[in-house]
Write a structure and sequence with these properties.
The chain contains 21 helices and 5 strands. By secondary structure, it is an alpha/beta fold. The protein has 2 domains: 265 residues, no CATH class; 123 residues. It has a 5-stranded mixed β-sheet with strand order 2-1-3-5-4.
Length: 498
């Protein structure tokens, strides 16, 4: 490594990880969320039931040209590489800020800026979960570089004598695009506000540029507000209920914290601890405000996890912590704590490689394993094509499934057939395809990984269902899953579904 500079090794590391993402992107089919958001691009709208529209809009050019998963996945792969680059740049800016403000305190003690940037990038590359978002486009994949961009603008604010109109315009655009990505972008906006408040000697609320940024952000997110206004604010109602989860319990919070460490790795925590211990002056209010880009969303999600949450929601927060962790790791490296860093880095990279291998192999199917989550990534393309053929031959109204997570892949791989979700939960499929008409006949798909009994009898059920065909998904000689197809007739009392 002595023959290359730290900045060169950071670029090399990002490129190697990006090549791995590229190879994996062409190797597996869409996950449930990927197919759902790709359908956003097929059904362009001002917004959607469960998320703002940018995750669909950004895919529209490629989705309109191709259905290849690998090509469409170039978008999240590029966003991940951009996020890693921004982590490096933010680290350099924080390093420069600390040297400038601590000339008599840390100038000689801080490691080089490029070494800090390299450590921050390596900590991100060694984090297992972000690789999932680097292959599959989720709203968090979009929010991550936008949060880092806002963090970069916050650093520019702290270092410049004043913000130019261009700076305010860029800030407003970043805020608006973050709002178009995910509703939790509000947490990032609060963090930016804390940085502005942490500089009491700089006027901002009386500046025309600040209100111009607010106006720009409002204009950018106006499609979401308009769509919700004409749809009875269903997206906000859903997100409030979804975020609050079920009955609150402390054990869920403990589980959330343990899962977070497993998903993002202890290296980031070690670096953050080193930064707080060795590099943070107690009087540095601005640095603490910058840390809120991690602290605000993470603490909120940790509290909400008592009712239930998903581990990837904190991804933008961890990327915003990475620059501080990089400085802390570089400091620990300079203090000769290299064995611990090497061990954690090697261990986390090994976990990532094992995860990649596990995905490519198709997972493990055995009686000792209750379920194989990797089986969900294989077979849906064949199943969708077969469903389209069977539905056409039977001359039915469309395809039916009994859970929305089954509907997204069915709708993507069997398009343009409508897909009806047979439950009493309102979701995006109701907006796209409407409710299944009374008396309709459909092709019912049942997947072994989430099996249901055919809905026969009762008010919300078919008169009868006849087994039609089945399809086994085999990879490397093992049966991953099975699809069963039934022809179901005369849907009853569909008007009572809602």
């Amino acid at each position: 490594m002595r023959h290359q500079s730290p900045s060169s090794w950071a670029a090399i590391s990002i490129c190697i990880a990006a090549l791995v993402h590229f190879a994996l992107g062409f190797s597996v089919e869409f996950s449930v969320d990927e197919a759902h958001y790709a359908l956003y691009a097929k059904h362009l709208a001002w917004s959607y039931f469960d998320h703002p529209p940018l995750v669909g809009w950004i895919q529209w050019p490629l989705v309109s040209l191709t259905s290849s998963e690998g090509v469409i996945r170039l978008i999240p792969e590029l966003l991940w590489a951009l996020s890693a680059y921004l982590v490096y740049q933010v680290t350099l800016e924080i390093h420069s800020l600390m040297r400038g403000r601590n000339a008599g305190y840390l100038t000689t003690a801080l490691p080089s800026a490029n070494l800090c940037g390299l450590m921050a990038v390596l900590a991100i590359i060694a984090a297992p979960l972000p690789h999932v978002l680097a292959i599959g486009l989720l709203p968090d994949t979009l929010l991550t570089p936008l949060s880092l961009g806002l963090m970069l603008m916050a650093l520019r604010w702290t270092r410049k004598d004043h913000f130019s109109i261009v700076d305010w315009i860029v800030t407003g655009l970043l805020l608006g695009l973050a709002g178009l990505s995910k509703y939790t972008a509000a947490f990032t906006a609060f963090a930016l506000l804390l940085v502005l408040l942490a500089s009491p000697k700089k006027a901002w609320i009386t500046k025309s540029g600040f209100w111009l940024a607010v106006a720009i952000a409002f204009v950018v997110i106006s499609p979401v507000l308009y769509w919700n206004w004409i749809n009875d604010w269903i997206s906000f109602k859903y997100q409030i209920a979804h975020g609050s989860g079920g009955t609150w319990a402390w054990r869920r919070v403990a589980a959330f914290l343990g899962i977070q460490i497993a998903c993002f790795g202890p290296l980031l925590l070690l670096g953050a601890f080193g930064f707080l211990k060795h590099c943070l002056n107690a009087h540095k209010l601005v640095l603490m405000a910058l840390l809120s880009f991690f602290a605000i969303p993470f603490v909120i999600f940790a509290l909400l996890s008592g009712g239930g949450s998903l581990p990837h929601w904190t991804t933008p927060a961890w990327f915003c912590l990475a620059p501080f962790a990089g400085i802390g790791l570089a400091k620990a490296w300079a203090m000769q704590h290299r064995l611990a860093i090497r061990t954690l880095l090697a261990g986390q990279l090994l976990i990532c490689l094992l995860g990649f291998s596990f995905v490519l192999s198709g997972g493990i199917n055995s009686a000792a394993v209750k379920s194989n989550p990797i089986a969900d990534l294989y077979g849906w393309k064949l199943a969708g094509q077969k469903a389209a053929q069977l539905a056409e031959a039977a001359n039915v109204n469309g395809i039916a499934v009994q859970n929305w997570t089954l509907g997204s892949r069915a709708a993507w791989y069997a398009q343009p057939l409508p897909v009806f979700v047979l439950d009493q939960r309102q979701d995006q499929f109701d907006l796209w395809f409407g409710q299944l008409p009374a008396g309709a006949s459909v092709l019912l798909i049942n997947w072994s990984g989430m099996a249901f009994n055919p809905p026969i009898g009762g008010k919300l059920a078919f008169e009868r269902c006849e087994p039609l065909d089945s399809l086994e998904i085999i990879r490397f000689g093992q049966v991953l899953s099975k699809f069963d197809y039934s022809l179901c007739h005369n849907w009853r009392d569909a008007s009572a579904a809602r």
